[in-house]
Amino acid sequence: ECYNRLKGKGVEFTELGTIKVSGPINNEQCYCRNCVLIKKTSNGAPVTVNGQFGVKANCSLAEKIDEFSTQLGLKGMDGYGAVQACRWINNASCTGCVGKLSWHGTGEAIDLATFDFGGQKVKSTTWASANPLQANIARVGCSVFHRVLGPAFYKGKWTHFHFEINHGSGAARCATGKP
Predict the structure, then answer these.
(1) How many Å apart are CA 123 and CA 77, to the nearest integer?
(2) Which of 8, 104, 149, 165 has an alpha carbon within 20 to 30 A of 36's alpha carbon?
(3) pLDDT tens digits for 11-23?
(4) How far is 33 from 55, CA to CA, in rounded Å?
(5) Distance between CA 177 and CA 128 in Å, rounded?
(6) From CA 153, how far away is CA 132, in angstroms rounded?
(7) Which residues contact 86 (CB under 8 A, 6 or more apart)?
(8) Which neighbouring-strand residues pair with 7?
(9) How far is residue 12's CA from residue 14's CA, in Å, rounded to a whole number?
(10) pLDDT (tens digit, 9 = 90+) per residue, 22-59?
(11) Which regions of 54-150 does DSSP assign to beta strands (E)?
(12) CA gyration radius, the chain
């Protein structure tokens, strides 16, 4: 059903089904179910990871990425990816990093750092030196995704946005900071 919605919107993607994600983590094997390789959103914006074309993500996350891109009018976006094991070692699991709000291990979260507005690329940064478009990225992100963590949340350690879909657990959260 999700695949059909993406097709109907004109999103460019490849169906991957259920794929094994790197692991196991603490003896738990991680899987991305209803996984897709999203290449371009319905408004033609390419989705890349570290400059490489295409992002593996749960189909529902791909729908949210498309909605986010369309609302912002993006011409492209780049980040660190969706489907991957949790990057934190202590108490990590496939269904979230304990105490860290991460669902990368199931393809239900993505980290994005660069947003192409057509002629103007915005790389997320600390609010002290933020481009005014970063506030709009945060606002739209918080209206589309279940959880959004922005550069202020990371207290200067990282400068990306973490976007996560509602996977049925935990309260919505928008921790992006203010310009």
Answers:
(1) 10
(2) 149
(3) 999 999 998 876 5
(4) 14
(5) 11
(6) 18
(7) 25, 92, 93, 96, 97, 100, 102, 104, 105
(8) none
(9) 7
(10) 655 566 677 788 999 999 999 999 988 777 788 888 99
(11) 55-58, 76-81, 109-116, 121-123, 147-149
(12) 15
